[in-house]
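Reopening this one. Same input as before:
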Amino acid sequence: MRARLRRESSIAFVPTMGGLHEGHVSLVRLAQQKAQCGVVSIFVNRLQFAPTDDFDRYPRMLAVDCELLQQQGVDVVFAPDENTLYPVRQEFMVKPPPLAETLEGEFRPGFLQGVATVVLKLFNIVQPQIAVFGKKDYQQFHMVREMVRQFNSPEEIVVGETVRAPDNLALSSRNRYLTSEERAEAPRLYQALARVKRGIEDGNTRFGDLEENAKEALCHRGWRVDYIAVRHRDTLAPACEGDRNLVVLGAARLGNTRLIDNVEACARGFTRKR
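Same output, byte for byte:
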């Protein structure tokens, strides 16, 4: 891989776990605008799955994914097997800060440690100047961006906007798990987050009440809510009155499928200094 990329003057990298859709395509197009050579990795990373997660049933469709990437003009696809990426048991791990134990980390222990470790390995292999991540995985891109900053790593982290279906469901590889009835219900996660956003932008600073109302609305319809949280956009710390640049994050289970989403919100007033 390094030998293939050594002659490239600039590389933009999109790490994925496959099961590609238009959301991934948008990241690929963004990468192609940023560098001469576009590289996409496809690897289902065992380290970021808990024993109760869906590692074994996560979509694996390499031939279809490669065809899609070829149509997009991607220069290189890196699709290693586990023995290639983990030739020995991975005992050295990237230990994220306490933020990694909140939100996704609270409900998926070890998830962000697994993400950080595999991303660092992939960066060391591909050695890109630019790496592109999707905003749908908000906490993930925040952690990767901070990891790069604190390790003085040279990659520029570029973030692409969430791509949505016409009914505003965020595109995700896991949407394939939804039954037809669940697919019709799935946009309500976005709707719940959007109501919180409207409340914030209307001047409501009772963030806890907004969160609880959104949870109750989803639970009433049979969802199992992991969290609805209003956070400061730059730090992902819990929002305080006076904070302006906020994000509303949510994760909930519909049947056997866990969905995540987020919407950014701008509160009234001025940002309080932290």
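So the earlier flakiness isn't reproducible anymore. For the record, The beta strands are 11-16, 37-42, 76-78, 130-134, 156-160, 224-232, 245-254, 257-266.
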